[in-house]
Design brief:
Elements: E1 2-4, E2 69-70, E3 82-84, E4 95-100, E5 105-110, E6 113-119, E7 132-135, E8 138-144, E9 152-158, E10 165-169, E11 175-177, E12 181-184, H1 185-194, E13 200-204, E14 215-216
Parallel strand pairs: 2-14, 4-13, 10-12
Antiparallel strand pairs: 1-11, 3-6, 4-5, 5-6, 7-13, 8-9, 9-10
Length: 218
């Protein structure tokens, strides 16, 4: 849910996604050994990840994510802005979502290629967004909050059992949430379309990804 804060809001956005990239390596998920008859096996229905509270982030493999490409951001990156470009990125591969609260940006990586980035709103001081890695445990394109007066949370990706999610919001200067990560609704729809249950969302506060070996698309 989105609300207004009365103390002047967040820091101005100046740099774009390439300046926010997180220093953590992120757990992308390992391949599984195939049995000889794996080609004939019936695919198992993916199980819903165990829900965690905001105080129970998962451990992250510090060597798992290699950033191969970042999206260029031309000019200031302001509230309500986003970029989505899957051109040149693999059509399939593990999805990792990174959130940098200090830079107020979210990035979506597929197989190490950044395919989307947006300016966010996040938790106010009395209801802060949690730090750590959280698997997506539920998806609901037409969700309404059971906690906050049936507030709409379109394209909701649940991260914790105690009310933290990514969802479409009114992303404007001075807005804040009750701990959720709010993104522009059009961006939320695209993010909803590429993610699946179990994909990791890693939230930090100002840490940077090592992009020394990454190229910029375009």
């Amino acid at each position: 849910m989105t609300g207004r804060i009365s103390t002047g809001g967040k820091l101005a956005i100046g740099g774009g996604a390439a300046a926010m990239l997180l220093v953590l390596g992120l757990s992308i998920g390992r391949g599984r050994d195939l049995k000889p008859d794996a080609a004939h096996a019936v695919p198992a229905k993916p199980s819903r990840p165990v829900e965690r509270t905001r105080a129970q982030p998962v451990a992250v493999d510090p060597h798992a994510l290699a950033v191969k490409r970042v999206l260029p951001i031309d000019g200031p990156f302001r509230h309500g802005d986003y970029v989505w470009d899957e051109g040149g990125a693999p059509a399939t591969g593990p999805i990792i979502v990174t959130v940098d609260l200090k830079a107020q940006t979210l990035s979506v990586f597929r197989a190490g290629y950044e395919i989307g980035t947006a300016v966010i709103i996040y938790g106010a001081d009395d209801k802060p967004s949690p730090l750590g890695a959280f698997p997506i445990s539920q998806k609901d394109a037409d969700h309404f909050s059971r906690t906050y007066n049936n507030a709409p949370m379109p394209y909701m990706l649940r991260l914790t059992s105690d009310g933290v999610a990514i969802h479409g919001s009114d992303v404007r200067w001075g807005n804040a949430t009750h701990g959720c990560i709010g993104v522009p609704r059009a961006f939320a729809k695209k993010l909803f379309g590429v993610t699946k249950l179990g994909d990791l969302v890693v939230i930090t506060d100002g840490k940077m990804l090592d992009t020394r070996h990454a190229k910029t698309s375009g």
